[in-house]
Design the sequence.
């Protein structure tokens, strides 16, 4: 199949055939094969009865272990391929300071102020929502993360209605509903 032709100053110019399959790269494979051959040759030589191993050399089991590591391909990490704990720790650095800062501001004021509603509330509720979202125990949102996101919305509604007591109770419920592990926090944590 050819690339479509195009015109250049009145002349029709055709393109070279398109390549459908990528050319395999041997950069990582060739050194592995050579290392495996060298290790196997050394291991076979050490098995012969005429060979006396010099002091300080590797035993056969270690040679075989190294050969297996060279022969077996290493697994490739894909972008976005992270474990749950690392995702929570990244979210902890990003969202938890906003959550703790908003809580401490509410606690210090003792009520819901106009300044809090105008300046802090949108980012505070968004941080609560995102922090609750990342607490899922499975790949897709589960009942834990959905419950936390629902509580975050309830906190926002209570704060907009200036119901300080209900908001503080819901915030404590929210904190207690966080699953055990790297997502847990206390209101006294440093932000």
Sequence:
């Amino acid at each position: 199949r050819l690339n479509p032709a195009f015109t250049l100053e009145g002349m029709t110019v055709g393109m070279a055939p398109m390549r459908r399959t990528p050319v395999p790269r041997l950069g990582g494979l060739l050194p592995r094969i050579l290392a495996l051959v060298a290790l196997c040759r050394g291991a076979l030589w050490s098995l012969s009865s005429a060979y006396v191993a010099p002091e300080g050399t590797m035993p056969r089991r270690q040679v075989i272990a190294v050969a297996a590591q060279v022969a077996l391909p290493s697994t490739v990490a894909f972008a976005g391929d992270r474990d749950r704990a690392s995702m929570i720790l990244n979210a902890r650095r990003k969202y938890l300071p906003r959550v703790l800062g908003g809580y401490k501001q509410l606690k210090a004021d003792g009520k819901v102020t106009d300044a809090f509603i105008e300046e802090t509330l949108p980012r505070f509720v968004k941080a609560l929502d995102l922090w609750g979202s990342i607490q899922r125990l499975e790949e897709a949102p589960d009942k834990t993360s959905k419950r936390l996101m629902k509580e975050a919305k309830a906190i926002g509604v209570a704060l907009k209605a200036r119901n300080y007591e209900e908001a503080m109770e819901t915030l404590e419920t929210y904190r207690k509903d966080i699953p055990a592990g790297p997502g847990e926090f206390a209101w006294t944590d440093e932000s």
